[in-house]
Design a protein that fits this description.
Elements lengths: L2 E4 L3 H12 L5 E5 L10 E4 L2 E4 L6 E2 L3 H7 L8 E5 L2 E5 L2 E4 L11 H12 L2 H4 L7 H9 L1 H16 L19 H10 L11 E5 L5 H10 L4 E3 L5 E3 L4 E2 L4 E2 L2 E4 L8 E3 L3 H8 L3 E9 L9 E3 L9 E3 L11 E6 L11 E9 L5 H13 L3 E3 L1 H4 L6 H16 L1
Parallel strand pairs: 1-2, 1-14, 2-10, 7-17, 11-15, 14-21
Antiparallel strand pairs: 3-4, 5-9, 6-9, 7-8, 11-12, 12-13, 16-19, 16-20, 17-18, 18-19
Helix pairs in contact: 1-8, 1-12, 3-7, 5-6, 9-10
């Protein structure tokens, strides 16, 4: 075929539908699961939807993406919410982002954080450090780093933080002492709004419904239950040549292939440097909240790092679900839990050079990495849709 697409997650589905939009039907999508959606799949638990790969929401900030997605699940089938997020720290819950809301903490903690932010390296002109832990302290101040961001990252990734680079954290805004002081004096937040400040979620379904509808349109071009164990870059084929194409779009993790043919030794060395973490999504039937959509929990003595109160965004539902790194999860009898072996790409120190080499060599053979795993980036679903639309348009032209 002309195009072979590995993976029926958001990026693969978007790419395929974009082809069909332009009258191209010479393509095939291969999916290892028995339904589409990837990390954004949903299941019915206690009669209501639960997103088995964690919380996935459609941001409102990409109108072209939303226009495309609303073709499959209409805007009138969605609710729009203004995000309400909390952080559980120092025995209390404060609003997110942390630095804009430390005025909600006890006065002793408020003073301690203000002094620390004022002394942060980014505010005093000290040279930026290279190690991750030191960089977080330099960026946020020691007390904010040690109370919140360091333990939170240790929980979500469960690796030595100094194996991670700092390049991916540059999106964090500088914590301004002036803005933080102003928020403490006026008792209201100042600074940059977080991502997903407003989001869409289906009224009657989980987030997975959107991707199921996208897959329905191309149902004659998808094969399910096909686990790809090998890929031949130069031959542009998979499964020992069973499937062959002019162009391959790979949305699967590069490390999930047991054999990569036609690749240089350097390519394989770079693939071996790509690391990831896994999570468990556990249903909590008796935990609800009246107003908070989700909550971050940096406390080391609690296994979960995030809890999502589905009754605040899935209409009529009850209970919540927790996200837990698999290294921290201790299974109990009666648990309703879903494991995602590939949850988050790890931004290790040498990842940027490694994934660039992988993508460049693959692309030279008309094999293109796309999405969270094809590009090994922690992308949200709305962003991978945008990227998939862009790649499809470039290749078609």
């Amino acid at each position: 075929m002309k195009y072979l697409i590995i993976g029926a997650g958001p990026s693969g589905l978007t790419f395929a539908n974009r082809l069909l939009d332009n009258g191209i039907d010479d393509f095939l999508v291969l999916e290892k699961e028995d339904e589409a959606g990837g990390l954004c799949r949903s299941a019915m638990v206690d009669g209501y939807p639960l997103d088995i790969g964690g919380g996935h929401f459609i941001d409102v900030r990409r109108p072209k993406v939303n226009e495309f997605l609303f073709r499959f699940l209409g805007e009138d089938e969605m609710n729009r919410y203004d995000r309400i997020t909390k952080i559980r720290v120092s025995g209390v819950r404060i609003d997110y982002p942390f630095e804009a809301n430390i005025w909600q903490l006890p006065i002793e903690d408020e003073i301690r954080h203000l002094k620390s932010i004022a002394a942060a390296g980014v505010n005093t002109g000290r040279e930026m450090p290279e190690s991750f832990r030191d960089w977080i302290i330099w960026k946020l101040g020691r007390s904010v780093a040690e109370d919140y961001l360091i333990p939170y990252n240790e929980k979500i990734f469960s690796v030595d933080l100094n194996t991670l680079g700092t390049y991916w954290m540059n999106k964090l805004p500088d914590v301004s002492f002036e803005d933080t002081l102003r928020s403490c004096l006026t008792k209201q937040p100042y600074g940059t709004l977080p991502g997903h400040a407003s989001f869409y979620y289906p009224k009657k379904y989980g987030s997975g419904e959107l991707w199921l509808r996208m897959s329905e349109r191309i149902k004659d071009h998808i094969e399910y239950g096909v686990c790809i164990k090998d890929i031949d870059l130069k031959g542009r084929s998979v499964s020992d040549g069973r499937y062959k194409a002019d162009i391959i779009i790979n949305t699967a993790p590069w490390t999930s292939f047991e054999n990569i043919k036609g690749a240089s030794g350097g390519f394989m060395d770079c693939v071996s440097k790509l690391e990831h973490s896994s999570i468990v999504v556990k249903y909590l039937p008796d935990t609800e909240d009246e107003e908070v959509n989700w909550e971050y929990i940096p406390a080391p003595d609690i296994d979960m790092h995030r809890i999502l109160y589905r009754n605040t965004f899935a209409e009529g539902s009850k209970g919540s679900w927790a996200e837990i790194n698999t290294k921290r999860y201790k299974a109990k009898d009666g648990d309703t839990a879903f494991i995602s072996d590939y949850a988050y790409p790890l931004n290790t120190v040498d990842k940027p050079e490694a994934i660039k080499a992988v993508l460049d060599e693959a692309a030279s053979n008309n094999v293109y990495g796309l999405g969270r795993w094809g590009e090994w980036e922690h992308y949200n679903s709305d962003l991978v849709v945008e990227l998939a639309m862009g790649l499809a348009d470039r290749l078609m032209s």
